[in-house]
Write a structure and sequence with these properties.
This protein has 161 residues and is mainly alpha-helical. 82% of the residues lie in helices and 0% in strands. The radius of gyration is 19 Å and the shape is globular. The termini are far apart.
Amino acid sequence: MAYNLFSLALLFSFIATISCDEALINKVCTHEYVRIDYCFLCFNTNPNTTQQDIYGLSGTSISCARRQANDLSVLFQKHNFIICHQQFQIVAQSIEAAYESWKRKDYDSVMELITEADKSYLTCSRELEGVHVPKKVSAGMSRMDNFILNAGAIVHTMLMK
């Protein structure tokens, strides 16, 4: 009987941990400055998110932006969008540096680098105004915009904690 009670208690504590992690992800993704669908898209494509605290989730959000920036840089080169390719090399470098700063726990630098990435993103975005671009490019730009915004908002939330 004691063995069954212990097993049941252990099971409930495990379930409570899962619920807590999901609750944190829901809390982070429903923050007023976070784009909900892209937040869940980012975290759902990363299997370790259910084991992370707010610091881990902020790193995951930066990783999502990093992958998207690299993908878009290649896409712009492929479609010969020279200015956007150049700007996205800066975006990718800034986000990579932000991720390295995050690993060193230099969170002020993370925010500065995400802001720098956003400026280069906006330069490219302005360059594309009125230009017919392939759907893959416009969809990628939309994801990038949301991933940058989410990374900044989640890091900001982490800093306010």
